[in-house]
Amino acid sequence: MSTQVTPHAAARAATNKLVESLRVHAGKPLSLGQHDPDATCGWQKEEAKAELETVKARIDVLQRRLFAEEKHSLLLVLQAMDAAGKDGTIRNILAGLNPAGIEVSSFRVPGGPEMQHDYLWRVHAATPAKGMIGIFNRSHYEDVLVVRVKQFVPKSVWSRRYEHIKAFEQLLTDEGTTVVKCYLNVSEDEQRERLQERVDDPEKRWKFRMGDLDDRKLWPKFQEAYHDALVRTSTDDAPWYVVPADRNWVRNLAVAKILLHHLEAMKPKLPPEEEGIAGLVVT
Predict the structure, then answer these.
(1) 121, CA 20 to 30 Å: which among 1, 41, 99, 273?
(2) What does the DSSP 8-state code read for residue 142?
(3) Do 60 and 97 meet the contact criterion of CB atoms below 8 Å apart?
(4) 211-244: buried (b, 16+ CB within 10 Å) or exposed (e) per residue?
(5) pLDDT at residue 33 tops 80
(6) Which ranges of 116-267 would DSSP assign to H, the alpha helix?
(7) Cβ of 181: how many Cβ atoms within 10 Å?
(8) Sign (positive/negative) of CA torsion 105, 110, 115, 118?
(9) What does each C-alpha distance from 64 to 4, 177, 245, 249 come to in angstroms?
(10) Which of 228, 248, 252, 250 is nearest to 240 (CA)?
(11) pLDDT digit string, tens, across residues 34-44
């Protein structure tokens, strides 16, 4: 007797396979050079755009259940080099979801009271409450990336932060927050084209800063810093994923599928309805 595979089961199996291929496995070596930024994951553009809408519809259902249940939360961390598309990813995969259940936080150069506390102080305050999906557009990882590459603090300081971060994320996990981290892997050539587009387009020029050119000169050092951050902080409970980001439509669908994968694993449920509501006629 043959076992028929339902379309939903097939889609879930395909998503699981994708997630596994992009995941940085704890304790295993990583070569960013073997992760092609221009990969298509076997998708065609128009089909991928259509599938993104299907995935978003499923995310919407689970996000509403998560919000109603109010027992757990999910934190999606997006890290990348400039122009990799963090804003575009957020805009494309979260548009249409219930805004009451979504929080987006961006972390710029610390200032004011933030300078008077440890580097995780402002980050902890922005983590999602129960029932919420939180998105970090850049994050606490800046303190082992930019801070390291530009030598804002000595190695003796930034090198111990990997263990701080792992402990911090384990705390969040233990207290009911699912932590998911995506590195949007853009190529140096694609970044150059996108930065040039910002310079040439008056509507995008505000995104460009002269310091972006200085950062491009440090590309190898940033790649090394990202490699170390991914390897040293990807855990079973708070995994990193290397997402190909040269093609926006691939990046968007990949991140959406990763998000869906973890929401399905959380299995959020609607709270019990009040007795007597079923069949009630409102007059």
Answers:
(1) 99
(2) G
(3) yes
(4) ebeebbeeeeebbebbbbbbbbbbbeebbbbbbb
(5) yes
(6) 121-125, 146-149, 155-158, 161-174, 188-200, 211-217, 219-233, 248-266
(7) 24
(8) positive
(9) 31, 16, 28, 25
(10) 228
(11) 999 999 999 99
37, 186 in Cβ contact below 8 A? yes
Q: Could you tell me the pTM of the whole model?
A: 0.94
The H-or-E segment that residue 242 falls in is strand 240-244
How confident is the model at residue 273, as a pLDDT?
Answer: 82
C-alpha gyration radius of the chain:
20
Helix (H) or strand (E) holding 99, with range, is none
Name the band, by pLDDT with cuts 50, 70 and 90, for residue 8: confident
pLDDT digits (tens, 9 = 90+) for 80-117: 999 999 999 999 999 888 899 999 999 988 888 999 99
Is residue 7 over pLDDT 70? no
The conformational region for residue 258 under phi > 0 = left, psi -120 to 50 = alpha, else beta, is alpha
Query: Stretch 64-92: mean pLDDT, rounded?
Result: 97
Helix (H) or strand (E) holding 182: strand 177-185
CB 26 within 8 A of CB 235: yes
What single DSSP character describes residue 112?
G
Give 264's DSSP letter.
H
The answer to whether the beta carbons of residues 85 and 251 sit under 8 Å apart is yes
What is the 3-state secondary structure of 18-35? HHHHHEECCCCCCCHHHC
Given a contact cutoff of 8 angstroms between Cβ atoms, the answer to whether 169 and 235 are in contact is yes
* CA separation for the pair 23, 145 (Å, rounded): 20
Q: Which of 201, 183, 185, 176 is nearest to 75 (CA)?
A: 176
Report the candidate in 20, 3, 44 with the shortest Cα–Cα distance to residue 236.
20
Per-residue DSSP letter, 106: E
3 state DSSP class of 279: coil
